[in-house]
């Protein structure tokens, strides 16, 4: 998976086989998104705490 910042899809990224360009994903329990902010990560963790 490739997180593309600001939808700046370069030709090299599109030509990589078996890769997917995504807006966000969870890696080692942290949400990583293409905006580089932590707002969605904070909201996600608050929601996880409410569920628990």
Automatic annotation (TrEMBL):
Domain of life, source organism: Eukaryota
The protein's name: Uncharacterized protein
Record lineage: Eukaryota, Metazoa, Ecdysozoa, Arthropoda, Hexapoda
């Amino acid at each position: 998976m490739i997180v593309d910042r600001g939808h700046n899809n370069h030709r090299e990224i599109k030509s990589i086989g078996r890769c997917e360009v995504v807006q966000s994903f969870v890696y080692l329990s942290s949400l990583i998104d293409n905006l580089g902010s932590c707002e969605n990560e904070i909201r996600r963790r608050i929601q996880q705490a409410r569920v628990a």
